[in-house]
Amino acid sequence: MNVEILAPAGSYESMRAAMNAGCDAVYIGGSRFGARAYADNPDEDTLLKAIDEAHIRGKKLYLTVNTLVKEEEMQEFLYDFLEKYYLAGLDAVIVQDVGVMRFIHRHFPKLPIHASTQATVMMPEGARLLKSTGVSRLVAARELSLEEIKYIRDNTDMEIEAFVHGALCYCYSGQCLLSSMIGGRSGNRGRCAQPCRMPYRFYSGGEMVSSVDVPYLLSPKDINTIAIIPDLIESGVNSFKIEGRMKGPEYAAGVTSIYRKYVDLYLEKGKEEFYRHLESFEYKNDMTSLMDLYNRGGFSRGYGGTYHGRSMMSMARPNHGGVLVGEVMEYEKGYAYIRLDEDINAQDVLEIRDYGNRPVYEFTVKDAISAEGLLKARTGRMPARFGARKSGGYPDIRNGYAVYRTRNNKLLNDIRKKYMDTDIKREITGFLYARQGERLSLTLSMDEHSVTAYHNPVEAAKNQPMTRDRLAASVDKLGDTPYSFKELAVEADDNIFVPVSWLNEIRRDAAAMLTDAVTGACRRTEKDLVPKDSALNGMCIASAGDNTALQIVINAAVSTAEQFETALRFSGVSSIYADYELFKPDELVHMAGETAASGKAYYVVLPHICRQATYKRLEKDLSMLAKRDDVRGFIIKNLEEAELLLKALDSAGIKKELRLNHNMYVFNREAKQFWREKGICHFTAPLELNEKELKTLGLQDCELVAYGFLPVMVSVQCLYDNTKGCGKCRMDASDAPYLTDRLGMRFYVRAHCGSCNNIIYNGQRLSLLGQAEKIMRLRPEAIRLDFTFEGPKEAETVLKAFEDAFIYGRNASLEFENITTGHFKRGVE
To answer: Could you please report the per-residue DSSP string of 559-595?
Structure first.
């Protein structure tokens, strides 16, 4: 059984280090379209070199093309960006955007596509929808349990790649707009500013229920799954993916080497020996090394170890936690006397922390000291803002303060020496043929490749003949080539002479030929791609129908019965959307009847996330709702719901209107065409495109969200559970729960206990009321007013204002505080 170790390569140096440490493949970004725009991504020439080097070393290289791609970028840049890498033998691309998947599959048909974790695939039903675009591997959503991963593996023919180590997002990957809405740096475009690692306070029922001592409420611990490697493999995980493209080569190599060791241990020795080793001193040291390299308040086993909970969170500290190495025994006149519990190395960085785990003082150790020794550290004077009692005084250090190591200098030096200073070479076999009167030849073989280099005919020796040992010694100087001889055979006559220069030349020629053979076998030709113009001609870009009406259709999405009754009274509202998760089935049916009686269309809005329990509920309820004539259609928020409805409606012979929600990210016409081919022709415009980009995309088949508190995070973590304990559920709408950030900005929170997730909303409500003329020129299929936390009077005010502006052409305004136009004006990079 083969299990791939997939290492992060935030740079060319990280790639080399990880390969030397034993990875089977690396994933790396290029100059565009990668989800780590701030990594030290290689330029085109370096990436082409990296592809060849990976293949020479017997490794694979996967390119991240895992951002959402705008229509203009799709037309002008994506093909040219990928063409050279494709021809060079790129092994696969990791992709989020279904439009990009379709584009790549049509243009570069021999390029394997791996569906990114950003695609938020939760079930085999979602994975199967992507099959038509050439997806051969699924990067599992981080939130999936081992049982859910196994269910996907058993019910698809796709490979499964799973994150096994590194940083964990608070939000379901691909569903986060927090960084985008706060500062315009979109995670979907590779520019996340990580606001989840900032401090927040949580309020419910008007009172703060979080603690000021643990303010990092959205900051999960890093994951470490070494202890559950057997379970991961048995659940069907084919590729162990290590997170960390923003970290250095030492991290990539260090983590890779440890996962290589323990995966091989299980595969070679079995489960019993594996678990026995977890009791060893060596295992303890390896876990300390992983902690030294990076951790956030320790590790969790991720969602493979638990469904969710506070044990997975690092709410006291959002960055590197280091390793506990000692305790302050005494502090006097600028000197801290520290009892050490671990060995300390020269140039280690130590941090003294107070009783609340807050940093007080940091310093670098000059000399190595063994465990159980006493370290006398001179702290010196410092400004008050850095922890001194007063400016120019000594830091406020007290007995009992913990001491952590945040940099293990010896570990880093050992990693550099072992994995970075020299490259590990590939073993080859050689055969040197030196018979008098015949051409000198050298054959090199590796795997399925074999090459032979020739030189001049061999002459008889005039003086001292060349022995076989001397011939072999001269050839066995592979030097700066990527090879070393596992075996070198020599067939030669006894009385011959071969100049050393000939041996050097034939060795160099043969090594170069072997390299060309290896890299050439991976390369593709022009016949293996579809020219850009031909591919574009094969794409239908027509809209679902041109909207030439002067008026704009207004649809209202409601979350409460009061909002529903209010929307029902407005003649300017054409359709009402009711949230499946916020109303009971009988309430949904009652609302459908009332809506139809009022002459309006009625749609059911489906859940953000669809996992097995939710899917089973939907199968039952949607079967009932789909048969009703007063239900016009459904608003779809994930791949699983799309597959469920398409299959159910087709088998029942029922016609319903299906519309994708904005979180399905139809950023380009390729994405629209992907869905049209499935039978879905109505969309919601993405929230991260500006006016110009929306015009380029075309909104004739798109609804545009023009008002609402926008969801910025969907998480399986529960804020109430992580702060006060699960109340099943004490966090309801009447409590008006919300977060505040350092600037006092609010983010509203809603718990969906039926599907067990939290949704965090931007506290600034979107309103495009003032953009009415521009929206009219864009001619969207409709605008949506998305009601969440509004009372009936607020809802009435909003409805009247939009009705006046968009139906009757009157001047209208909203006087609410904290209104934003979102990305309609600014967009994202």
So the answer is: SSHHHHHHHHT-TTEEEEEEETTTS-HHHHHHHHHHH
